[in-house]
Amino acid sequence: MDTVILISQVIMGLALLLTFVRVVRGPSLPDRVVALELFSTTVVGLVGVYAIQSGVASFLDAAIVIALMGFLAAIGFARFLERGGPRDD
């Protein structure tokens, strides 16, 4: 089980790195919004894997909070774009 946890943490860490590159490079604001949503989802996955590894169930509460904040941020960005905010398409 330790090997599976380590492999999943490495893969999710690589996914975080690649997602961060997408957030920085763009090319457009909607792409960055989707990358930020993926970033928060990957962080939730990492926290979940760490909760399994450590056996502390309180980390799952933190994962739920991170997921909710990521969802609300995506809704906020989508509303901003829908109302005609600056776009760099």
TrEMBL record:
TM region positions:
6-24, 33-53, 59-81
What UniProt keywords apply to this chain's record, in alphabetical order? Antiport, Cell membrane, Ion transport, Membrane, Transmembrane, Transmembrane helix, Transport
- Keyword Membrane applies: yes
Q: How does it sit in the membrane?
A: Multi-pass membrane protein
Compartment list: Cell membrane
Q: What is its main location?
A: membrane
Assigned protein family: Belongs to the CPA3 antiporters (TC 2.A.63) subunit F family.
Name of the molecule in the record: PH regulation protein F
